[in-house]
Write a structure and sequence with these properties.
By secondary structure, this protein is α+β, with helices and mostly antiparallel strands. It is built from five helices and 14 strands. The chain is globular.
Length: 326
């Protein structure tokens, strides 16, 4: 009697073959992932640039209507040119809302009231996407509860963009050779008007306003808006430091403006123009630099290796420099 024939062997993979296939797949994924991340960041950077473009266009439309640029802030003295009374503190962003297709938010906001007033709560707690950079890790956060001039502000929506009001005295003292002449006074100001200060020029009692005609350094050489992303969380040189510790992050906040100090290793002042800290300095999460909008409405990516003197020259509007971000 013969034994039954053996069942035919089913074709299959050996363990070694399976391990080889898994290894090949892992290598391919490892090669593909950076490309996917690069594509994603490229799209985010383009969206960020589009946001800044919209801010620039909105500012131009504001200028067409009022003949002046919107102020970087109004504070205790108000801003009579725009009908803002005393103690009605406002940030730069509130003036752009109608030209950003945010009429409903602007209609809910009163510039005759402090930004933290209960009458403005609906508006300031509304998310405005054009103020948010898609690369920012905190784009879904709101500002922590804070007190401003006696008003308790809760749930205020934040912005990843800001204005640079002036080149600070700290930077001028820190790198005088880079920022000569150090006696230019008000010519260290940026383009946006504000209540008069030690770093401003006036067109009326205690106030200053700017128009395109007053920007003598050239519209294509002067900064409008820059990134200052991830606030209210604190970041230094690409690393998270602490949550909810950077103030003035709300888009309506009158303190949502910065002065260029320069930075080094997360501290100020210093000789780097950006990406050391998002606490009062230009900062982004785009590798190698930040997006900026210039007064002529153009948007460009500025490398973080740009010399501090060149970047400071782009901040000032009336200093007579010839330096260009190009």
């Amino acid at each position: 009697m013969h034994p039954p024939p053996a069942a035919p062997r089913r074709p299959g993979f050996t363990l070694i073959e399976l391990l080889v296939v898994v290894a090949i797949i892992a290598v391919l994924v490892g090669l593909l992932l950076p490309a996917v991340q690069k594509t994603r960041e490229s799209a985010a950077r383009t969206k960020c640039q589009n946001n800044l473009k919209q801010l620039g266009l909105a500012c131009h439309n504001f200028h067409d209507t009022y003949g002046v640029l919107p102020p970087s802030r109004s504070a205790s003295g108000g801003f009579p040119k725009l009908g803002v009374p005393n103690n009605a503190y406002q940030g730069w962003a509130v003036w752009l809302l109608p030209n950003l297709e945010q009429e409903n938010v602007r209609n809910a906001y009163s510039t005759t009231l402090h930004f933290g007033h209960a009458g403005n709560r609906t508006a300031i707690t509304t998310r405005v996407n054009v103020f948010k950079c898609p690369s920012s890790p905190t784009r879904d956060k709101v500002a922590p509860t804070f007190t401003a001039q006696g008003f308790t502000v809760t749930g205020a929506q934040t912005a990843d963009y800001t204005v640079i009001r002036f080149v600070t005295e700290g930077l001028r003292n820190h790198t005088p050779a880079d920022l000569d002449p150090a006696t230019r006074g008000s010519s260290f100001d940026g383009v946006h008007g504000a209540q008069a200060s030690a770093h401003s020029y006036s067109t009326g009692t205690n106030y200053r306003v700017n128009s395109f005609a007053r920007i003598t350094d050239g519209l294509s050489n002067t900064l409008f808006y820059v990134e200052c992303a991830a606030r209210p969380d604190l970041y230094r040189t690409g690393r998270f430091v602490s949550a909810d510790t950077v103030g003035a992050s709300a888009w309506a906040d009158s303190e949502n403006e910065i002065g260029l100090d320069g930075c080094e290793n997360g501290s100020t002042p210093g000789t780097r123009a950006m990406n050391c800290t998002n606490s009062g300095e230009p900062y982004s999460f785009h590798p190698g630099g930040i997006n900026v909008c210039l007064v002529d409405g153009s948007v460009r990516f500025v490398r973080e290796t740009v010399p501090i003197r060149t970047f400071a020259a782009a901040v000032t509007a009336r200093a007579g420099e010839t330096a260009s971000l190009d």
